[in-house]
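Page 42, continued from yesterday. The earlier attempt failed because a stray header line got pasted into the input along with the sequence. Redoing it now with the clean sequence only.
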Amino acid sequence: MKNATKRTKTNDRSHDRELRRHLLDLLSGEGAHAKFEDVVSGIPSTLRGTKPAGFLHSAWMLLEHMRIAQWDILEFSRNPKHVSPDWPAGYWPQTEAPRSAAAWDKRVQQFRRDLRAMRELVERSKTDLFARIPWGDGQTILREALLIADHNAYHLGQLVDVRRVLGVWPK
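This time it went through. Structure tokens are written below.
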């Protein structure tokens, strides 16, 4: 009986490591997903605020929406005092274009920083991916990591479409 218990604990640790690796890959855009770096780099600053005909959003609007949503999910995951923005207005920028190239660069850096923080949360072996977040209503870190990956993949796809219509994809 002792061997069966050891084998189960070993398998549990192995499965836990494998799940974390898969989540980290998903958050990074591995496999069939577009990678954030590939999608946001090379967009001319003159086109970042252009909303193509028939599209609801410019590249700036999509970047800013992704950044805000990702930040909100991350903060909810780690901060019991976090208050989410109002939906939907608080999740979208007020303008179609960034104020400057520096504003775009700053938002890209913030997105990267928050994505890295979520990856670190998932990577930490002390993080119980299946435990309910105490201040939530049933959410887990696993669910929140999947939500970020899913949300980012969806909007990165939209951003690729915006780039294609603007004639700047592939770079």
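Notes: The helical segments are 2-28, 36-40, 59-78, 101-123, 141-166.
Reminder to self: strip header lines before submitting.
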